[in-house]
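Two quick folds needed for the group meeting slides. Do the first one here.
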Amino acid sequence: MPRKIDDAMRILQALDMPRAQTNLRSALCLLAICDIKPRTAWKQARAPLLGITPIMAFAAEHFLEKPYAPNTRETIRRQTMHQFCEAGITLYNPDDPSRPVNSPKAVYQISPEALALMRNFGGPQWQKSLAGFIERRGRLARKYAAPRKLAEVPIRTGNGRIMRLSPGAHSKLIRSIVEAFAPRFAPGSTLIYAGDTGDKRGFSNDAAFAALGIELDSHGKMPDVVIHDTARDWLLLCEAVTSHGPVNAKRHAELKRLFAAHRGLVFVTAFASRKVMAKYLAEIAWETEVWCADAPDHLVHFNGERFLGPYA
C-alpha cells in the first residue's frame, strides 16, 4: 500500500473515526481534500475546493490503478464526506452554504483547524495538535454547521411543529405547496409527508398513513408532498418540479400503485412559475392538476369532468 494512503488511514484512526471511515475510500478522500500526492509532504497540505467527481479523479490519477465507477459518487458522499463534515474535518459548500444538496456544483474543503492538524502529521507537534483537535471537535462541527442551518428552509407542519429542509429551490417550492397551495385548495387539510433532497428523510406522519390503511413501500418513490384533505378524504399527491419531471403517465401509474389502498387520489404537479411549466406541458398526464407558485390562486386542470378531485 502506498505510504501516503497508510498515513491517511493512521490519521483517521487517530481521530477515532468509525471503521467505515478509516478504509481506503476515506483515506483517498482525505488525501484529495488536502491535495496530498505520493511525493507531497504533509506540511505542504492545502485546502482546495473539491466536488465528489474531482475527488474521485484525484484518487484515480495519483493512487489507483483504475478509476472509481461513476455510481460510487453517492457512496463517497454519504459514507465518507458526510461523516467528515460531522467530525469537523471538512466544510460543505463553504463558498455558498445555501447551495442545494443535489447541486452539481457542491464542494468540500478541509476546515482550517483540520488543515493545521494535517500539516503537523509526523512532526513534533502532532500529538499536541491531535489532542487539541479532538477536544474541540464537537464545537467545530457545530460552528461549521451553523451557516448551513441558517440556509435551511423552514416549513410549518400544521401542528405547530417547524421542520427544516435542505436549502435549495426544490425545498422552497415544497414550502409553497404546504403554505400556499394547501390552504387555498384543501383548507383544513393535514400535511402527512414532505420529502427532502438531503440526507434527512424530511417529515412523515406514519400514524396517519397507518390510519388510512396505507403501508409505505420502502422501495416505492414517494411524491414530494402528501396532503390529506380530511373533509373530503382525499389524498393530494404533489410533485415539486425544479429539476425532475412532472406527473407524467408513467409517474401517474406508479403513484396509483403506491397508494392503491386509498380511493380518493388527486395528482398535482407544482412549478415555481408558468414559464417553467411551459417546458413540461407535453409530458403532463391527463386527469392531473398543475399549480404554479407565481399564480397561487389558480389551478390548471388536465382533462376530465372535474376541476379538482379523484377519479374512479
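Then this one, please, same format:
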Amino acid sequence: MNDQIKKPNTYTSEFKESSVKLALESEQPIAQTARDLGVNPNTIHTWINKHSKPKTAVARTDDHIYDENKRLKKALARMTLERDLLKKATAYFAKEIV
C-alpha cells in the first residue's frame, strides 16, 4: 500500500497578505476566492482574523498585569530583606567603631 501522507502547506507571508487583501476586496465570497487560490476557506478566514487585527504597541491583558504585580512584589520583598540586612550590618559596624 502506497498511502501518501499529506503534509501541511506552507505559505509565505506575502502570499497570505495578498490573499487576505484579495478576499476582502473581491466581489466574490471569501470561500470562492479561497477555492480559486487553492487554499482551504477556513485558512483564509484565519489569515483574515490575524491580519485584520489592529497592531498595538503593547497588548496589555489582566494576565500581564497580574504577572507584573507578582514580579514587583517579589522584587520588593527581596529589596526589603537587603535593606534590613544592611541596616543590621551598619548598626553592627557602628558599634565596633565607637
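Slide caption for protein two: The chain has a mean pLDDT of 84.
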